[in-house]
From TrEMBL:
This is Glycolate oxidase subunit GlcD. Its cofactor is FAD. Keywords: FAD, Flavoprotein, Oxidoreductase. GO terms for molecular function: FAD binding; oxidoreductase activity. PROSITE patterns: FAD_PCMH (PS51387). The keyword Cell membrane does not apply. It comes from Kiloniella litopenaei. The lineage of its organism: Bacteria, Pseudomonadati, Pseudomonadota, Alphaproteobacteria, Rhodospirillales. It holds the Pfam family FAD_binding_4. The keyword Oxidoreductase applies. It comes from the Bacteria. Residues 48-226 form the FAD-binding PCMH-type domain.
């Protein structure tokens, strides 16, 4: 993975930079020793490691602003980091960049039940928001599998989803406002407790921007009252194609479950051995369908979904009888990623999104790719919205297997685009999918996205080397081509 060459003039001034930053963030706010920096050399994409120039741990917005302003004035790159759970290498450090760690921003600032929102700092964990409001019967809907560890600031950066995003939306659908700091130290606020704002949707622009446009220092999210009733169905099928057909049939019938997840046989077996959730082991694919709302509605929908599943060839069906059993159904799915670690020394967790009706085709093609590469794959994904999470199993101790796994993953993502999908649903582009961006966007598309980046960060100091396969200078993007001394479209007024 090619990353920008380190600026040796910055590396040579490491001690001088650290001394200045210690004045801004005193005490233990600057980490410089090689041993301590090993903690920060990677994020969730552990195949790639690079210690940062140094790690800086601010505690106040003013400190963030001063650090950013200093780095901007002195041409020092900044890589923002939340909890470091990114699976796309979004927080991969650079040798000539400070790693701006937001973990000390970990307070719930305010819970406003009247306006059904919570104001939190970016280092608060996803699950921490629900824990802060569940006493009054509320919760925060987006729930990534890593919710016990991932931070809300990182969720904003990657537009994270989760098992309940089918009905309740991704981070962007549950985000009301943010406070952020630009690379020059300017502090801005977009949105707030109100439901909408006039003008450009800059809040939407920041959501999923992967740390390329600014650093989030405060987040206002929507909280929801816990549904009156929630029950889950376990539906087993003799093939992944039949399970995929059931997903399409449920949605086409106008039913929007609270969550609808799918696992294939390798993932089922791994999760069951890990959690003992009671999953059937004699099926090739398993659907978990959760229905929530008023009890009468849930009872009706359970009958409807059960009938649809039977028509699609379900060979097993089990309905949760109490809250403990429902949570157990989900515990297996939530633990699927670590559970696969019991089957293989290493695995590569992918993320791509396809149209729901292409699910049977894509699963068939993935099996063919698995045979071609000689690598096993376990499939766990958000079936309702077509967000795939193939887990490619390999052994990094075998020469060439990591590269083979990456090639396999690249082919899966190309397939996603080929059938009308996209490169990522919630993990982000980072470094993992960076060089595949031309599979989805042409040069004009990518340059237009870069112009947005330049509007916020004209020196390209924020999280460089991520998302864009080729980083142009902002001046190059604005350059006008003059042919034989003549301007293009000379009749257009220019100012």
């Amino acid at each position: 993975m090619k990353m920008p060459d380190p600026d040796q003039s910055i590396v040579a001034k490491r001690d001088e930079i650290a001394e200045t930053l210690r004045e801004i963030v005193p005490g233990e706010g600057v980490i410089l020793s090689d041993r301590e920096l090993q903690v920060y050399e990677s994020d969730g994409l552990t195949a790639y490691r690079q210690p940062p120039l140094m790690a800086v741990l601010p505690q106040t917005v003013e400190q963030v602003s001063q650090v950013m302003a200093y780095c901007h004035a002195n041409g020092i790159k900044v890589v923002p980091r939340g909890s470091g759970t990114s699976l796309s290498g979004g927080a991969l450090p650079l040798a000539d960049a400070i790693l701006l760690c937001m973990g000390k921003f970990n307070k719930v600032v305010e819970v406003d039940y009247d306006n059904r929102c919570a104001v939190v700092q970016p280092g608060v964990t996803n699950l921490g928001i629900t824990k802060a409001v569940e006493g009054k019967g509320f919760y925060y809907a987006p729930d990534p599998s890593s919710q016990i560890a991932c931070s809300i600031g990182g969720n904003v950066a990657e537009n994270a989803g989760g098992v309940h995003c089918l009905k309740y939306g991704l981070t962007t659908n549950n985000l009301l406002g943010i406070e952020m700091v630009l690379i020059d130290g300017t502090v801005l606020r977009f949105g707030g407790k109100h439901l909408d704002s006039p003008g450009y949707d800059l809040l939407g622009l920041m959501t999923g921007s992967e740390g390329l446009l600014g650093v989030v220092t405060e987040v206002t999210v929507r909280i929801l009252p816990k549904p009156e009733t929630a029950r889950a169905l376990l539906l087993g099928f003799s093939s992944s194609e039949s399970a995929g057909d059931c997903v399409a049939a449920i949605i086409s019938d106008g039913i929007v479950p609270g969550g609808m997840e799918m696992m294939d046989k390798p993932a089922i077996e791994a999760a069951e051995a890990f959690v003992n959730a009671g999953y059937p082991l004699d099926v090739e694919a398993l659907l978990i369908v959760e229905l929530d709302g008023p009890q009468a509605e849930v009872d009706y929908l359970i009958d409807e979904v059960s009938a649809i599943a039977t028509k699609c060839g379900a060979i097993t069906s089990r309905i949760s009888q109490n809250e403990e059993e429902r949570q157990l159904f989900w515990a297996g799915r939530k633990a699927a990623f670590p559970a696969v670690g019991r089957l293989t020394p290493d695995y590569y967790c992918m993320d791509g999104t396809i149209p729901r009706n292409k699910l049977p085709l894509v699963l068939k093609r993935m099996r063919e790719m698995s045979e071609h590469y000689g690598l096993r794959v376990a499939n766990v994904f958000h079936a309702g919205d077509g967000n795939l999470h193939p887990l490619i199993m390999y052994d990094a101790n075998n020469p060439g297997e990591l590269e083979k796994a990456e090639d396999f993953g690249s082919d899966i993502l190309r397939l996603c685009v080929e059938v009308g999908g996209v490169l990522t649903g919630e993990h982000g582009v980072g470094v993992e999918k960076r060089d595949l961006m031309p599979e989805m966007f042409n040069e004009i598309d990518l340059k237009q996205q870069l112009r947005v980046k330049c509007a916020f960060d004209s020196k390209a100091l924020l999280n460089p080397g991520k998302v864009f396969p080729e980083l142009h200078r902002c001046a190059e993007l604005g350059r006008m081509h003059i042919h034989k001394g003549k301007l293009p479209f000379p009749d257009i007024p220019r100012f």
